[in-house]
Every structure is written in structure tokens, then in C-alpha cells.
Amino acid sequence: MIERLREQGIRDEAVLTAMGEIPRHQFVEEALASRAYEDTALPLGFSQTISQPFIVARMIELLRSGRSGLGKTLEVGAGCGYQAAVLGRLTPEVYAVERIAPLLEKAKANLRALRQFNVRLKHADGQMGLPEAAPFDTIIVAAAAPSLPLALLQQLSPGGRIVLPIGSVEQTLHLVERTPQGFVETKLDAVRFVPLLPGTE
After folding, report:
1. pTM
2. Which of 50, 72, 76, 96 is 20 to 30 A from 133 in CA distance terms?
3. Which residues contact 43 (CB under 8 A, 6 or more apart)?
4. How many CA atoms lie within 13 A of 15 on its CB side?
5. pLDDT at 31 (0 to 100)
């Protein structure tokens, strides 16, 4: 998987190392374990998916590019906990929110099994972020919003970055940086994610 990510253009060795250290097969259903290292999204149940490895690597690489590190990080859409586990290898302070309670329990169990205790998980509406722990240096969103969620932008610290997919039928990855002059937005690759839904269940 790591060699394929290199071939696909991922250059950040710290990201590649972190992804190499996390056993992706432990985060998917047993029946899908043989496909865990394919470059594809896999179903988690509850109409959710675990993102394809390239997209996880690409989003984290974008957030780290030209910076000393990720700093205090918020993940929106923890799912099974895989991306949170990768993030936890790259920064000491990770907060992850998930709106679907049974998925959150699965993420907690997965991270416990890896003894990864620097990720704090919360059952919450991802569109609202996590104001009680804000501000964040980095926010990564694993579901597509129709537009930039204002609550998340407000929780970015100065110099902070957020990467997220935006759109409904056609989705694009966006990187937004909070500068002294305001928010600077860069539109990147075409992607496909589940929608960012409001509320909790």
C-alpha cells in the first residue's frame, strides 16, 4: 500500500510512515479484511465508508505541507477511527467527532486495541465542530459539506488549516488557511465522500 501511495504522488515520508504503522485491516469488517489495503473506500455500515488510503494520505499531506506539524487537530467524521489513528501518529493532540453512536463505539474499541490514547472521541454533530476544545491548528473533514461550515472556520486558530470535500453531486477537495488577511481558499481534486449530515443518531 505504501509503495502504491508513493507511486500516486504522496511525498511526505511522515504520512507514509504513519499509514504504514496503522493496520487498516483491523478497522474494517472481517469479511472485508482481505481488501483492506486496496486503494478503495470500503463500507462500514450505517451508510458510511472508510476513506480510500490515497485520500487519507493526500488530505493529511496537504495539511502538513510547509508547516512544522499538524498541531492540535480536529477530525470531523471519525467513522471506524482509522484516520484518527493515523493522525494520532503525527500529532500528540487529536479530537475526533462522530454523529453515529454505534460507529463511535467501534472507533473507541479500535483505538483501544492499538493502545492509541492521544485521540479523544466524542459523539457530536460534526457541522458544529467541537467549540469546547477550540481553537484547532488543523481540521480535517471526512464528509462532504454543501458549503464551507462557518462553525468550523471559526474554530480555526490563526495560521490554521482545514481540508474538506465540498459539493453534493460533484465534490471537490478544498484547503482553507486562516491568515491575518482572512481565509484563503484553494480548490483541489475531484473527490467522492458521503454527505456531512446534521444532528446525531
Report:
1. 0.94
2. 50
3. 29, 32, 49
4. 23
5. 74
